[in-house]
Design goal:
18 helices; mainly alpha; 4 strands; globular; 63% helix; two-stranded antiparallel ribbon; binds iron/sulfur cluster
């Protein structure tokens, strides 16, 4: 047998064994529901303990460490590990977090099993909720310093958990209505999980061949499994694995889902969440505290207020649940601080988001489209995902620095990730534009250049934060 044929057979066997392994893993998830439920309830107990207990403890002394102080430990787990790595996991393994670990999802589903079972109201199906809830939570979290103080974490995360249980109790029967429509992270998870190289693949031919009467799958996010073509809404819980011999856990190219988008498949609200939410509001929220422009803005506004004898906004009498107020650590926001944060984040969202939108519009015009080419915005998802990861990872870095961990590798890692996000997006946008094959190449390149000019503002802002300020 020739060497080429042998190599081909070896590759074929390897791919079969990989496929079998993934299928087995998916089937194991289906058959070991008890184990998954045990994991879920362990996470619920761990989550509630770290959320509630530290909120009633004194704030840590300056010399305390995360390994000997529960408040710092909870802070490290929530903001140093949980959020950055859950975001990253979306791009690596899809929404496994939602289907296997998320405490809010588990509690909401449990409440829904024993609740009123009402129909999902029309207002809840509005496509703009993921953008609104993500933006509101992100901005409010900055005003109350959710990353630093356990009371603020209890308010923001605990409030979200109570709302999840309330919505679960009212709507659906054993379903995750909260997760599908109102969860502040749902839209972001849906965007990032499109890149996961794992998915539950549905073979529609096999589906059609299976006996007509098979028990329905208890899919908590109410997906029409037969028609499922993407990862965005799937919680990767494994309950449908092997259903009608048509659903299998399988590997795929991380780019396939975005590249297979056609005009009309994309959601306009998804693109707005990407452009103004992830690349705008989240970037502003991560950057304001490091920005000299923020200080300048605050000083200018303070001077203006003093000149006009408007001293009320310089007072620091806002309650802790509205603006950060911790006299014991000398961390107190004045009304002016709160207003400055709102202006800074709002301006960042408008400038960054507006610039990207403008470039997208220009690209659309170059390609001869009269409508906004929303689909092309999805090509920027890798940059958005890495931007959010880097922002959240800065919290991890701050905590590691406080523990005097050597982080000399950090500038290099940040540069590599930024380049990866930019180049990946550049490649995706180019491939998406090439799909418009009736357009002359020079116009394709011009449209691509416009979109990447829009994206560069995000990279430039991180270069300022990481290497210049
Ligand atoms: S389609 Fe539904 S049941 Fe199947 S893995 Fe996804 S969330 Fe679970």
């Amino acid at each position: 047998m020739s060497e080429t044929v042998q190599t081909g057979l070896f590759r074929q066997r390897l791919s079969i064994s990989k496929k079998t392994l993934l299928q087995s893993l998916g089937d194991a998830m289906r058959h070991h529901r008890g184990l998954i439920q045990s994991i879920q309830w362990t996470v619920v107990i761990f989550y509630l303990s770290l959320l509630i207990w530290p909120a009633f403890m004194p704030l840590p002394a300056a010399y305390a460490h995360f390994y000997d102080n529960l408040v710092l430990f909870a802070q490290f787990v929530f903001w140093g590990l949980w959020w950055p790595f859950v975001m990253l996991s979306m791009m690596l393994i899809g929404r496994v977090w939602c289907g296997v670990f998320c405490p809010e999802g588990s509690l909401s589903e449990l409440a829904s099993r024993h609740g009123l079972g009402r129909a999902i109201p029309r207002w809840m199906r509005w496509g703009g909720w993921p953008f609104v809830t993500f933006s509101a939570t992100t901005i409010y979290g900055q005003l109350v310093s959710v990353y630093e103080y356990p009371k603020a974490a209890l308010l923001v995360l605990g409030g979200s958990t109570i709302a999840a249980v309330g919505v679960g109790f009212l709507y659906g029967r054993g379903k995750r209505v909260w997760c599908m429509y109102l969860c502040p992270a749902n839209g972001v998870f849906g965007l990032l999980s499109r890149f996961a190289p794992l998915h539950f693949r549905v073979d529609t031919d096999m589906w059609a061949k299976a006996p007509r009467r098979t028990p329905a799958v208890d899919c908590a996010p109410l997906i029409n499994i037969r028609a499922m073509t993407g990862n965005s809404a799937c919680h990767m819980c494994g309950r449908c694995s092997g259903h009608r011999n048509a659903v299998v856990l399988a590997a795929r190219s991380p780019n396939r889902e975005i590249l297979s988008l056609r005009d009309g498949d994309d959601s306009r609200w998804g693109a707005i969440l990407l452009i103004f939410g992830l690349l705008g509001i989240a970037t502003g929220a991560f950057q304001w505290s490091a920005s000299p422009w923020f200080i300048n803005l605050k000083q200018y506004l303070a001077g203006w207020l003093i000149d006009h004898h408007l001293f009320a906004l310089l007072r620091d009498n806002a309650p802790w649940w509205l603006l950060t107020h911790y006299p014991e650590t000398n961390d107190i926001f004045t009304w002016l601080d709160g207003i400055s944060i709102l202006i800074y984040i709002g301006a960042t969202a408008l400038i960054f988001g507006g610039w990207i939108l403008l470039m997208l519009r220009l690209a659309g015009r170059i390609l001869g489209r009269s409508a906004m080419p929303w689909r092309l915005a999805y090509g920027l998802t890798p940059l958005a995902g890495i931007s959010v990861f880097l922002g959240l990872f800065s919290l991890t870095v701050g905590m590691l620095k406080a523990e005097r961990v050597d982080i000399g590798w950090l500038p290099g890692l940040r540069a590599i990730l930024l380049m990866l996000g930019l180049l990946w997006s550049a490649w995706l946008v180019r491939r998406m534009i090439i799909a418009c094959n009736s357009i002359p190449p020079w116009r394709q390149w011009a449209a691509w250049s416009a979109i990447m000019t829009g994206a560069c503002i995000i990279v430039a802002s991180w270069v300022l934060v990481f290497y210049i300020w």
